Amino acid sequence: MKVEKLFIELLQVALGNREKFSVCPSAEEWELLYDMAKKQALVGVCFFALKLLPIEQQPPLLRRRQWAVKAMRLEERNKQVTQECKYVTSFFAKGNYESCVLKGQSNTYLYPKGLRGLRTPGDIDLWVWEKGRQSLYDKKRLVEALWKASGKRLDVAVHHAECGILPNTPVEVHFVPSFAINPITDYKMRQFWAKHSDCIRHTDDGFYIPTDGFNLIFQMSHIFRHVLLEGIGFRQLIDYYFVLKSFYDHMSLEPKGKLSDSKAVMKEIEHLGMKRITSAVMWIMKDVFAMKDEYLLCKASEKYGRELLNEILVGGNFGQSSDEHAKQKVDDDGKETFASKIEGNFATIKRGMKLFWSYPSECFWVPYLCLRASWVRNYWRKVEVPSISSGRE
Asked: Residues of 47-84 as b/e, b for ≥16 C-beta within 10 angstroms?
């Protein structure tokens, strides 16, 4: 537990809420801290903290130099992904589609200047809709366009489709920003996305990102879903920390009447069944990241917050370090095996049942979601698309 406490203190330093460690780490503890930073996909963020620590609390020179090299690579990778976001946005614009970059790279615009390029980038999540038809469009036509652009048939999930237009960065095209496990809540959520589809703003790099008020709800739904289905890490919680900071620091810039204050945001969060997970996240913000009360959306819950913290520490980034995480197995053609699908569904249901008493209204529907997701994938695999030759499928 000492190393976990030191890691949390290191994150507080990176966030500007602490000046130094309470106890100087040993060389062995620095190696464990570096391993935790990798597990949580926070190598760059933690390196930023190193630069703020007093000289007597710095890691051994060799480790610091290796850490610095990793950080430099992250900065270059962030620049590349930002340019790729601009490219994919313009690509869809030529096809009469508008788009908005969700989470991931859009969050870098909320980070402080010195920390912005040190966030570990992932894939590109793009919310796409036909121009002038944000609430209604032909999904089949969009998927067919994606397959044609990619040159092959790719997987289609409940709320997004894979797109292979970039050689090194996965792109997920979202029909809706996120979804709920409970079908009733999911219906409410789809109505919310349609009603607030204009809550976007333009960046200097040539693409749109969500407004802060919209982001507070969207990214909470993203956190909630991953907590229930596979796990979540500190990287996503630090993203949310900066969404909160940006929202409260720039509240006057939010479009009036469109999620422009915390009461309006919490009203939507409660309507979408996310009050309990929000209270857990607020506990992480306050008691783990040392965020000031003035930035919290609601009262923090220690009970659910500690449960969430344990999930984060055990599972790592998106739960990939958890024993429950099912590793995908593929056949000789690169397709997931049937046994792997069954194993993955079993692991998802098992995880949902473990959290049932904390979030019963969502966890009850996890088996239904597994069936729904399988049906959606199988349906799209059977859809005939004349523009894709059989030789490239």
From this structure: bbbbeebeeebebeeebeeebeebbeebeebbeebbeb
Token output for 164: 């292979």
Tell me: the pLDDT tens digits for 287-328?
Answer: 999 999 999 999 999 999 999 999 999 876 655 555 555 555
3-state SS assignment for residue 365 = coil
H-type helices in the chain, by residue range? Answer: 2-14, 27-39, 43-50, 61-94, 104-107, 113-116, 139-150, 183-195, 212-229, 234-249, 262-271, 275-283, 302-315, 338-354, 360-363, 366-382
The partner residues of 162 in beta bridges, in order of sequence, read 172
Give the pLDDT confidence score for residue 388 in this predicted structure.
Answer: 61
- What distance in Å separates the CA atoms of residue 388 and residue 372, rounded to the nearest whole number? 26
**What CA–CA distance (Å, rounded) separates 91 from 333?**
29
Which position has the token pair 């609390």? 57
CA distance 180 to 358: 16
